[in-house]
Amino acid sequence: MKLALVTETYPPEINGVAMTLSQLVGGLRDKGHLVQVVRPIQCSEQGEPSVSSDTITVFGLPIPRYPDLRFGLPSRNRLIHAWQTNRPDIVHVATEGPLGLSAIRAAKVLGIPTTSTFHTNFHSYSEHYNAKFATRIVLAFLRWIHNQTRCTMAPTQELAQELAAEGFKNMDVFGRGVNLKVFTPKARDENLRKSWNAATDSPVFIHVSRLAAEKNYELLNKAYSKIRDTRPDARFVIIGSGPMEKQLRRKMPYAYFPGAIPLENRPELARYYASADTFLYPSKTETYGNVATEAMACGNALLGFDYAAPAQHVRHGANGLLAALDDDDSFLRSSVEIARNDALRKRLGQAAAAYSPAFDWQPIVDRFESILRRTITS
C-alpha cells in the first residue's frame, strides 16, 4: 500500500499528534508499506519546499499562540503534480488546516480516496482563549472538512459517538498506544529522585504536557497547593513548554521545570515518569491524552477526569482514580487522598503498570491499516 499522510506537525516537534503519527508511520513502514509524509517546513528547517518518495514539504506560517509550530499553506496544485508522478493508493489527512483541506481537494481531482483523523478538540479550546462564542463555528468548520473524506477516525468510541451526534459522517475508531519497551517502571532512577530532593518515601507528582491554557492549569495549581498542605515533603515535576511556561514557573516556584523533552529522546522522558509516583491530569480538552497512558505504563498512579484515555483505561480505585468531568472538587479531594495514602498510591501504580500490555502499539497500527485497506477497496 502507498499512503500519503498529510499533517501540520511531525517530529521533532513535540506534541501528542506528532508522536502518534511517527508511531503509525514507523509501524506501517515496518510492515512494508510505502508512506509519504506531507508537512510544512518546520521552524528548525531552512530551504525551499521539496518532494521525494517519502516526504513532501510545503511553505507554512506560525500558528497563533504556538510560534514554534506551523500550519501548511494551501498546496493543491503542488500535490496534484506530485501525486500524478507518484500516485498514492490513499491519502490520510491527520490535521484540519489549509494544507489538509488542499490535500483533500487534490485527491478528489485525481480520484484518490481520503480518510482523516480527529486528533485535537480545537473547538473546545475556544473558551480558554476568551472566544467561547466561536465553539459552534469551529465545530462546523471541522465537520465540513472531515465530511469530505470517506472516513473520520477518533481515538475512542466515546468521542466517535459524540462527533456522530454532531453530524460527522462515517466515524470509526482506532486508539493510541505506548512504546512498552521504553515506558516501563524499570526506567526508575533513584539518582534523579535525589536531584529533586525527594526522600525515599516522599511522593513525587509529575505532569507532562504542552503548557497552554486549555490544559486546565488553574485546577492543577489548586491541587498542588492542597497536596503541599497535606504532604510538605511532596515534590513536583512539570515537563513541557508552551505559552504558559513563564506564568507557571512564577506560580509554582517549588516545582522542577526541566523543559520539554524531545520526541527522539523518549527514554529520558520515561526515566522522569518512572522516577515519579503520581500523575495528575486535570485537562478536559483532550481527544485522548497519550501522556496518561505513558504515565500508567511507567507505574504512576493516575488521577484524571472520566473521559478520553482515563475513561477508557482506568478502573476507579483499581488501577487509578477518576473524577466526574464536571466535579473539580472530587478531583481535589482525590489529589489529597492519593498524597496522604502511601499504600493506595503504591497499589494503584503497580496495578497501572500491570495493565500496560493494553497499550501495545502493534494492534493499533494493524487497526489503522485495516481501515485504510477497507477504504481503498470500498
Explain what you see.
- The chain is of the alpha/beta class and 378 residues long.
- The chain folds into two domains: 2-177 and 360-377, Glycogen Phosphorylase B (Rossmann fold, 3-Layer(aba) Sandwich), CATH 3.40.50; 185-359, 3-Layer(aba) Sandwich (Rossmann fold).
- It has 15 helices and 15 strands.
- The strands form three sheets. A seven-stranded parallel sheet has the order 3-2-1-6-7-8-9, sandwiched between helices. Strands 12-11-10-13-14-15 form a six-stranded parallel sheet, with helices on both faces.
- Strand 4 (60-63) and strand 5 (66-72) form a beta hairpin.
- Helix 1 crosses helix 15.
- The longest helix has 17 residues, at 361-377.
- The model is unreliable at 122-131 (pLDDT under 50).
Work out the helix count: 15
N-to-C order of helices and strands: EHEEEEHEHEHHEHEHEHEHEHEHEHEHHH
Quaternary state reads single chain
Number of domains: 2
| Biggest sheet overview | 7 strands, parallel
Strand elements, count: 15
Indicate the percent of residues in helices: 40-55%
Overall pLDDT, averaged? 92
* CATH classification, class level of the largest domain: Alpha Beta
- CATH architectural name of the largest domain: 3-Layer(aba) Sandwich
Q: Kindly estimate the percentage of residues that lie in beta strands according to DSSP.
A: 15-25%
